[in-house]
């Protein structure tokens, strides 16, 4: 082989390596731009506190997805009208013609037929669901791990209607704790211990311990009825009925699992018991499903303590003879009826700028249903036993002809009426053999180089709350959730693994003699 040929091949190999390196760098750049992982994403909106709730100013956000195989060859309008039923077809047609719903970032006609690898992008005026304003407290923090006490109502990571109102976003925005690796999860309404890795290696190590059942977990809950004094182990297998809406049941076709329960006390005044739960496995909704099966559901479990499961509410696996399909349909209908509560509004001033504290809602309205603004799947037809009149839909007000046009995403700073400072940080356990002269008190400042940020507090939505005249939700009045809508009496109390152990303080409702305030 000639020297010239060798040099040519070497040059070709160098070019190939350069191309591969460039592709990897571009891939890394794309990953770095994922929602929630850059300062631009964190800073696209801000919080304000109102009526004990953490709220997010609406902001513009682009949802993207590639064309699925079953969509190829179909009209884009038909696909959105069928697959994304949050809005009517006429609204999607308006978005396509206005250029806010694009294909490969180009404007198309509503009759455009989708092709393989088409990138669909939809710019929306995003409204998030309010969560509790209770602070996320740090239980432990070091160079490898962050352990927090999560308040009920805050999801762990972005999902559905939640993005900035999630644990990972709040920790990044207010504690400068970014790029945390999720080790495990808690349900949105469950409070308690939540562990994050600060490095991929530590996260994998902790995940391995949990997966191999090396971690002992203890939860505390409050259930209906007088729970037996003797320890009970429930080993009924659990099956996921629907991943889409997240519901499970005891079934012979389910996966093996085991939970040990022990009564901590009974309150005869309200006929409830405080129960210690020790799950030996980690199935979806395991504790809640096993308690439902035993006939002692969590007092305020909005899913597994509901008559939709039949007269016995799922005790002993009895769902009133319903098939899985019928159960799912009924659950969706109940979710729609109880969570979407629209309130009439007379004009744009009422819709866009009037503080919620001035809203007058009748006592009867306050006592019916929940007040969540969580998005619900839509039914093609009402479920059996649910009439159309019981499925409440928001009432729209006509946007003013003088309404301001969309102005794009911009920083919105609420009027500052005080501060919401994170609670004092817990100190980690001291090592008696540590002779380091430096203080071993671990704080956000010592670990991140900055003090915790504070969330600005507003007396209510101000002029910073810009309205989009084409936004469906800008034209709807929602009732704020009540305190009891934001909590489920289930708390992750203690986690113990090889060489480590963490626990939180118990919530007030875990006291056996506690009674729910009438005003909640």
UniProtKB/TrEMBL annotation:
Region of interest (Disordered), ranges: 355-443
Q: Name one Pfam family in it.
A: PseudoU_synth_2
Q: Which residues are catalytic?
A: 187
**Does the UniProt entry include the keyword Phosphoprotein?**
yes
Domain Pseudouridine synthase RsuA/RluA-like stretches: 144-292
- One annotated GO molecular function: pseudouridine synthase activity
GO terms under biological process: enzyme-directed rRNA pseudouridine synthesis; mRNA processing
Give me the stretches of Polar residues compositional bias. 387-401
Q: Which domain of life is it from?
A: Eukaryota
Q: Which InterPro entries match?
A: PsdUridine_synth_cat_dom_sf (IPR020103), PsdUridine_synth_RluA-like_CS (IPR006224), PsdUridine_synth_RluC/D (IPR006225), PsdUridine_synth_RsuA/RluA (IPR006145), RluA_PseudoU_synthase (IPR050188)
The yes or no answer to whether the keyword Glycosyltransferase is present is: no
What's in the keyword line of the UniProt record?
A: Isomerase, mRNA processing, Phosphoprotein, RNA-binding
Function field: Pseudouridine synthase that catalyzes pseudouridylation of mRNAs.
Q: Which family does it belong to?
A: Belongs to the pseudouridine synthase RluA family.
NCBIfam families given in the database record: rluA_subfam
Q: What name has this protein been given in UniProt? A: Pseudouridylate synthase RPUSD2
Organism this protein belongs to: Arctia plantaginis (Wood tiger moth)
């Amino acid at each position: 082989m000639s020297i010239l040929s060798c040099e040519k091949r070497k040059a070709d190999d160098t070019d190939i390596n350069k191309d591969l390196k460039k592709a990897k760098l571009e891939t890394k750049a794309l990953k770095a731009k994922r929602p929630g992982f850059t300062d631009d994403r964190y800073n696209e909106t801000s919080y304000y506190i109102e009526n004990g709730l953490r709220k997010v100013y609406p902001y513009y956000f682009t949802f993207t997805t590639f064309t699925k195989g079953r969509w190829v060859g179909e009209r884009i309008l038909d696909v959105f009208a069928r697959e994304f039923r949050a809005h009517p077809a006429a609204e999607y047609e308006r978005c396509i013609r206005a250029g806010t719903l694009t294909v490969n970032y180009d404007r198309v006609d509503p009759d455009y037929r989708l092709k393989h690898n088409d990138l669909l992008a939809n710019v929306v005026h995003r409204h998030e669901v309010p969560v509790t304003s209770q602070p996320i407290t740090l239980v432990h923090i070091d160079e490898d791990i962050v352990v927090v006490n999560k308040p009920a109502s805050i999801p762990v990571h972005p999902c559905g209607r939640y993005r900035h109102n999630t644990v990972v976003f709040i920790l990044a925005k207010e504690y400068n704790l970014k790029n945390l690796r999720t080790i495990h999860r808690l349900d949105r309404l469950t409070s308690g211990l939540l562990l994050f890795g600060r490095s991929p290696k530590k996260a994998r190590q902790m995940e391995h311990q949990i997966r191999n059942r090396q971690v002992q977990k203890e939860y505390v809950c409050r259930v209906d009825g007088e729970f037996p004094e003797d320890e009970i182990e429930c080993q009924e297998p659990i099956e996921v009925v629907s991943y889409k809406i997240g519901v499970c049941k005891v079934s012979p076709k389910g996966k093996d699992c085991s939970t040990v329960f022990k009564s901590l006390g009974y309150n005869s005044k309200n006929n409830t018991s405080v129960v210690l739960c020790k799950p030996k496995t980690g199935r979806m909704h395991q504790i809640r499903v096993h308690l439902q099966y035993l006939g002692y559901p969590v007092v305020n479990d909005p899913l597994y303590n509901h008559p939709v499961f039949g007269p016995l509410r799922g005790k002993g696996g009895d769902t009133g003879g319903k098939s899985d399909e019928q159960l799912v349909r009924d659950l969706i209908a109940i979710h729609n009826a109880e969570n979407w509560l629209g309130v009439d509004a007379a004009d744009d001033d009422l819709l866009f700028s009037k503080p919620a504290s001035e809203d007058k809602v009748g006592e009867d309205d306050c006592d019916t249903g929940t007040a969540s603004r969580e998005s619900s799947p839509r039914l093609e037809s009402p479920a059996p036993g649910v009439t159309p009149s019981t499925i409440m839909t928001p009432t729209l007000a006509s946007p003013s002809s003088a309404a301001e046009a969309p102005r794009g995403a911009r920083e919105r700073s609420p009027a500052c009426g005080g501060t919401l400072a994170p609670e004092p940080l817990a100190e980690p356990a001291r090592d008696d053999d540590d002779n380091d002269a430096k203080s071993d008190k671990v704080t956000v400042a010592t670990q991140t180089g900055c003090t915790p940020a504070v969330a600005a507090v507003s007396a209510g939505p101000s002029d910073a709350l810009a309205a989009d005249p084409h936004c469906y939700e800008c034209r709807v009045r929602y009732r704020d959730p009540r305190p009891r809508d934001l909590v489920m009496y289930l708390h992750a109390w203690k986690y113990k693994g090889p060489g480590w152990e963490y626990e939180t303080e118990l919530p007030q409702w875990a006291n056996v003699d506690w009674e729910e305030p009438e005003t909640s």
